[in-house]
Design brief:
The protein has about 140 residues and is α+β, with helices and mostly antiparallel strands. It has one domain (about 5-140). The chain has helices at about 35-40, 40-50, 65-90, and strands spanning about 5, 10-15, 30, 100-105, 115-120, 125, 130-140. Bound molecules: zinc ion. Zinc ion binds next to loops.
Length: about 140
């Protein structure tokens, strides 16, 4: 179950304990695509261009220089925006004002299915009276809360 670390008008930051099977202890932050797009006009524009690619989206790298350039720009922008948003949010948690981290496509899984921000330290939160190393999710606040 995700617990709420903090909420603002724009987002909600939730957490769950990291698996004890995971050998790497530093915390991860996963930023929702929809929230990243809401927050950044350039990312919205690049995503719209990608949506307009149609069949060209299946091009192999090297077949179409314009498509390659679009994906390079889109991926760079995703990394920049998600890193900034993740660090801004975690720095709002008392005790983590100096946290740093980098975006990685492989933050949550070696296959690339779970891109996110790998922090330079563990974030600890209390769960049922005990301190746990946690991973965090940054999502848009839904209308009903
Ligand atoms: Zn995976």
């Amino acid at each position: 179950m995700k617990r709420v670390a903090l909420t603002t008008d724009a987002y909600r930051l939730t957490y769950v304990p990291r698996s004890t099977r995971d050998p790497v202890a530093s915390s991860r932050v996963y930023v929702a695509d929809s929230l990243a797009e809401q927050s950044d006009e350039q990312l919205r524009e690049l995503s719209a261009q990608e949506a307009d690619l149609g069949k060209l989206r299946w091009s192999q790298r090297g077949e179409n220089a314009d498509v390659d350039k679009l994906y390079d720009r889109l991926n760079r922008r995703i990394a920049t925006v998600k890193r900034r948003m993740a660090l801004d949010a975690v720095r709002e948690i008392p005790g983590y004002v100096n946290v740093e981290g980098d975006f990685s496509r492989y933050a949550g899984c070696s296959c690339g299915c779970s891109p996110g921000v790998i922090l330079d330290q563990e974030v600890h939160m209390m769960i049922d009276g005990r301190s746990h190393c946690v991973d965090l999710w940054l999502e848009a606040k839904s209308i009903d809360d």
